[in-house]
TrEMBL record:
Domain of life: Bacteria
PROSITE patterns reported in the protein's UniProt record: PROKAR_LIPOPROTEIN
Name of this protein: Outer membrane protein
């Protein structure tokens, strides 16, 4: 990390000279962020516990004590962020720009590492924009919760950045966006665990089509998303004699999701909401995945059925310098359209029937500072999977209480 900071310092010193190039301009930005948190039990929380999602189920030991009912907490600063926006010379009538944004939230076996958050180039005409590179997934969208937790509303709000080619067309108050996306840091689940291979072998990128309408303080929109995965390219089958045989298979799982969002922005308060019918969106930090609906007895080739979830959130913030944040999210497992023929399922949170969370936060905000505290109770209802429809039955609840302290310095 020391070498990385030296590199950025050298780049910052060099930029005044570089910026003298004709028609180029550069603007650095970022923040230093510290998160102090405490949980009453173990949780599904990637990024070393900073990216909080939901409480884990009971895990009883030989004496009937819940191993996961163990408090935990820590303090981290590795989500500190550095970025640069660049404006370049025109190409014909198109304005050119680029962005590079990094933080220290990449993980090796022993320490945090510098990672790319966003890296793209863009061409802007009067009514259209072409973006090529890595940036926010369109399901993350233009309406996002205002909370203190790093998870930014997940697992009810999609959270993902992917390499993509995105085209936006604007006319009056309307804008249309079409995107083709490929996976890299946020990956779908499957037989190999989380991997980009399922989309890579599919040869079909994720596809998104959405529309937004803006009028003064209002913003409303909707979108539809398609994902097509190839979970396996070969299978291994044990015959009656106990010998293993391998077969090339042609498997595919294709499904759609849709979303709608709304926001009202007043001078001293803001209301926002989003709802999704989510299908196989576990790579966007939502509950979801897929199961097996058929297995060929000879070759072992499998057919799949996606698990569907209804997920929604609402968010209200009041104030400017002293700000109150209220957020509520709810997810319901709707099951699948075909019966399951195997206990094997791929995804995140597929043994959860319902998930409910509330965020209550207060923050003090200055032009370059934010200091706040947040309380987040989250309850998950775990149970057994009904193979006839994929729904969760025989449920019991598990609750975690999370307290977060945050300090940020923006520049």
């Amino acid at each position: 990390m020391k070498k990385t900071l030296i590199l950025w310092a050298a780049l910052a010193c060099a930029c005044p000279g570089i910026a003298q190039k004709k028609h180029f301009s550069y603007q650095f930005y970022g923040f230093v962020r510290g998160d102090l948190f405490y949980n009453t039990r173990a949780n599904q929380a990637p990024v070393d516990g900073n990216f909080y999602l939901y409480p884990l189920d009971h895990d009883y030991d030989s004496r009937g004590e819940d191993i996961n009912a163990t408090p935990n907490g820590s303090f981290y600063t590795f989500t500190t962020r550095l970025g640069i926006d660049m404006q370049g010379p025109k190409i014909g009538k198109a304005k050119t720009s680029a962005k590079v944004e990094v933080d220290f939230g990449g993980f090796s076996a022993s320490t945090t590492m510098l990672r790319i958050r966003q890296a793209y180039v863009a061409l802007d005409w009067e009514r259209t924009r072409l973006l090529i590179g890595q940036t926010w997934h369109p399901l993350f969208g233009s309406v996002v919760p205002d909370v203190l937790n790093l998870s930014t509303g997940a697992p009810f709000q999609p959270f993902n950045r992917e390499p993509q080619i995105a085209f936006t067309w604007r006319t009056g108050r309307f804008s249309l966006t079409a995107s083709a996306l490929w996976q890299l840091q946020y990956m779908s689940s499957g037989p190999e665990g989380a991997s980009e291979n399922y989309l890579k072998n599919s040869c079909v990128p994720e596809l998104f089509l959405g529309a937004d309408y803006r009028q003064e303080r209002w913003l409303a929109g909707a979108g539809v998303h398609l994902i097509s995965l190839k979970p396996r390219t070969s299978s291994t089958v044990t015959d009656a004699s106990g010998n293993e045989q391998r077969f090339k298979v042609n498997e595919r799982m294709t499904t759609f999701s849709c979303e709608a969002h709304l926001q009202y922005q007043a001078p001293s308060w803001r209301f926002a909401a989003k709802t999704l019918l989510a299908s196989c969106l576990d790579h966007t930090a939502l509950l979801g995945g897929y199961g097996i609906s058929r297995i060929d007895p000879v070759t072992g080739e499998q057919e799949y059925t996606p698990m569907r979830h209804s997920t929604s959130w609402v968010n209200l913030t009041v104030g400017t310098r002293w700000k109150g944040h209220l957020y509520a999210g709810y997810t319901k497992n709707l099951g699948c359209s075909k019966a399951l023929v195997s206990d094997e399922k791929y995804g995140m949170g597929l043994d959860i029937d319902q998930l409910c969370s509330f965020n209550l936060a207060f923050s003090y905000n200055l032009p370059h500072w934010q200091i706040g505290v947040e309380y987040v109770p989250t309850t998950a209802w775990y149970g057994d999977t009904n193979p006839a429809n994929g729904k969760i039955i025989n449920t019991h609840s598990v609750t975690n209480h999370r307290i977060l302290g945050l300090v940020m310095y923006y520049f």
